[in-house]
Each structure stands twice: as C-alpha cells, then as structure tokens.
Give the backbone structure.
Amino acid sequence: MKNQIDSIFHVLGNKTRREILFALSDEPMYFNQVSKQIGIGQQAMLRHMQALVDTGFVKTYGEKSDFGAPDRKYYRLESAFNLSISLSEDEFTIDYNEEKIPHDKIDRLSNKKFKQISEDPSIALGTLRKYLTEIDNDIQNLQHEINDLKAIRQTLLQKVHKIGHDNFAHLERKIIYKMMRETPTSVTELSHMLSENKSEVIIALRELHDKMDRGTMRTLVGELTT
C-alpha cells in the first residue's frame, strides 16, 4: 500500500497532471482536446498523459471517426479510490481505500434514494441538480460528524502521549503508540512495524509487563507470539 500511496503523491504533486484529471472528470477527451484545454504543448502533454496511464489514473480507448478517418484515441479516468490525510498536534495518518463499487450496487442505492428521472432532458437536468445538492448536503453533514469524532480522537491521543512521556522509556512508548492503532500478532511483526531490533522489542515488552497490571497489558498488546 505504501508504494501505491507514494505513486499517488508523485502523480498528484504535479499541477498540470491535476488539471488533466479535472478536465477528464467532466467527460472523456481526445489528446488535442485536453492539450488545448490545459494550454500546454503536445510533447509535454504526451509525457504527462503517459505518466497518468502508467499509474492507472487514466485509460485510453478508441472510437471511430467520421469520414473514414482513423479511429480517434480517447482518454478517460480509470482509478477509483479515497485518500484521506489527517494532521494534528498528535497524529499524522494517511488512509487509503481502493474500492470500485459495482454498478448493480450503485443502481440499488440510487433507486432506493431517488425517484425515476425523466427522459426529457429539460426536466432531467433540474431533477439531477436537486439530487446532487441533496447528496452534497448529506456529505457535508457527515463530514461535520467526522470532524467532531476526530476532535475527540485527538483529545484521547493527547492523553495517551502524556502518559507515555511521563511514565515510559522511548521504545516502550513506541510500542504503546503502535498498539493503540494496530494489532500485530507476533513480536516479529511488531518489530518490523517499529523498525526496531526484535531482541530489544522483547526487552521493552518485558519492562512493560513489569510496569502494568496483567489485564491492561493483555488489552494493550494481546497475545503476541514470538
């Protein structure tokens, strides 16, 4: 997953490639259309498009041209993922979720929430605008709830970090902080997560056992195998 995230940052870190993705989010376009809309030369455009295709952000397909001309190559968006970055005084996380929702599920969700959309374009556009506004409002309300939960989470993490700083050694704190978020099943896996020597992690775990009661220790680290 780390390589995938690095690739995403590499692609999205370039302003021109972001503009290309914005342009293609409205509809597929052929090469010259995108180049003209973005306002860059064809050679530069070719390099950016190749980077987007190589990383799976964009896919090409052919479409027959009029008057017997060769098929025209179109570009469209291909990837489907969510990337969320949280940065606060007590936490830095990158959450990556790649999930393509099946079309039949999308249809079920849409039919459940919205009425049939008219075949008349003049009516359908107004209805679609109304539905999009409702969805955007729902997303905004949910985001407010998520922000409240993140604020509570930050308060809890502050307490964890204060306890760690006041009572435990450096490696012991690293173990505590890691176990608050993840659940490795073995000391080997934990050592790998911490980028620490396994023998030193074992010593730190023993120190934690001596400093905490058995129930708290079991809740914190579970039953780690060697």
